[in-house]
Every structure is written in structure tokens, then in C-alpha cells.
Specification:
heterodimer; A: 115 residues; mainly beta; six-stranded mixed sheet; four-stranded antiparallel sheet; B: 114 residues; seven-stranded mixed sheet; 52% strand
Chain lengths: 115, 114
């Protein structure tokens, strides 16, 4: 069974600085998708970025980028120029590529951005 | 991406009672998913709901406790039955519309059982 591990329960960063959140996963599949979701206090789950495993190029969305290391099964999220609005829970998630649309979540990292 | 309306946003219920949570999607989707998020924890999949068939439950979740309805392609309900304080959680519905759109989540229902 697939598992997703986030080893950092809490992180903090100063505004305008850069922070990296870690995520590792375990799967025997070759094709799959990885996601980072943000959950602010409003509870709304917001998609931050996604990565297709067959793509070697790391995904980037504005201030958010990933470091996808397929062989190491690592999928870290880098937030550049951190903003106060980035304060939230961040969840790494995995979706298998074949015959499933189920999303498996990691335990989450609580990020606090300080002014 | 899809817009999901989830109701109620929160409720406080007496133990032994049941609560039905509704999710309405603004477009037709094949599968809907129901998640539970216990306080301070991650999201755990309860079941996958397909229109016209019985829901598929994950290990640790049973139909008698969490009956699900999926009467059409835009609507689903999750009932939390015979509630106990351990059922106090946030419950979220979600839909998947392909990799280009990813998953969309409802705003969640915060349930407190007293």
C-alpha cells in the first residue's frame, strides 16, 4: 500500500524568506501523481502544486516549486518570498496512476510565517 | 475547476443521534469522495461514492456507521450514525475531474458530538 510521510510537524519562517517542506512516499507504481495542498484556518483545501511522475521537470507555480526526486521517492515543496498568507497546514498527497482516483495524504506540516 | 457546496458548515450534536452532510457539485462528476479529518490530524478517506452503485468503504469504515447516498452525478450525502464523541471531526467531500483540474474539496463540516 502507498504511504506518504511528512517528517516536519511544524515549521516557521520569516516573511520574505524561503522555506522547504519535506515529503517522502512509498509506492511500487511507476506512474502516479503528487500534490501539495494548503489548508488555512478556514478549512478549505487549496491545491498548491502538482507533479506527474513521468515528468522529469520539477513543477513550478509562481512562488511555489517542488524538488521531485523519483528514485529517492521524495517530493519537497519550496516556498519563496514567504508571505503572511502562506500560514497554513500543508499536506503532501499521492494518487496512483492506474485504476484509482484515491488521494492519500501525509500527516501535514503546520507552517507559520512571521512578520 | 468544480465548485462544491457542502452543508452544514458546522453542527453540535448529541451522542446517539445522526447527522447527514450534503455535497452539491456544480457539474457532473463520476466519483465523489468523503474524508474525515480528526482534530489536528490529516485527512483519511472514508469511502468513494459512484452514482448508481454502493459506495466503496476503506478499511475501518462501515456502511452501517457511515451510510452514503449518491442519487445523481452532482449530489451526495454522508450520514454519521449513532454518534459518539469520537466522531467529532471535520468531514469533507471531494471530487476528481482529471489531472488537469485535480481534486476540489468542499469547505468541510465541523462536527462536535457532546
Amino acid at each position: 500500500a502507498q504511504t506518504v510521510t511528512q517528517s516536519q510537524p511544524e515549521m516557521s519562517v520569516q516573511e520574505a524568506e524561503t522555506v522547504t517542506l519535506s515529503c517522502t512516499y512509498d509506492t511500487s507504481e511507476n506512474n502516479y501523481y503528487l500534490f501539495w495542498y494548503k489548508q488555512p484556518p478556514s478549512r478549505q483545501m487549496i491545491l498548491v502544486i502538482r507533479q506527474e511522475a513521468y515528468k522529469q521537470q520539477n513543477a513550478t507555480e509562481n512562488r511555489f516549486s517542488v524538488n521531485f526526486q523519483k528514485a529517492a521517492k521524495s517530493f519537497s515543496l519550496k516556498i519563496s518570498d514567504s508571505q503572511l498568507g502562506d500560514t497554513a497546514m500543508y499536506f503532501c498527497a499521492f494518487m496512483g496512476g492506474y485504476n484509482t482516483d484515491k488521494l492519500i495524504f501525509g500527516t501535514g506540516t503546520r507552517l507559520q510565517v512571521f512578520p | 475547476s468544480a465548485v462544491i457546496s457542502q452543508k452544514p458548515s458546522r453542527d453540535i450534536c448529541q451522542r446517539g443521534t445522526s447527522l447527514t452532510i450534503q455535497c452539491q457539485v456544480d457539474s457532473q462528476v463520476t466519483m465523489m469522495f468523503w474524508y474525515r479529518q480528526q482534530p489536528g490530524q490529516s485527512l483519511t478517506l472514508i469511502a468513494t461514492a459512484n452514482q448508481g452503485s454502493e459506495a466503496t468503504y476503506e478499511s475501518g469504515f462501515v456502511i452501517d456507521k457511515f451510510p452514503i447516498s449518491r442519487p445523481n452525478l452532482t449530489f451526495s450525502t454522508l450520514t454519521v450514525s449513532n454518534m459518539s464523541p469520537e466522531d467529532s471531526s471535520i468531514y469533507l467531500c471531494s471530487v476528481y475531474r482529471g489531472i488537469n483540474y485535480g481534486y476540489t474539496f468542499g469547505s468541510g463540516t465541523r462536527l462536535t458530538v457532546v
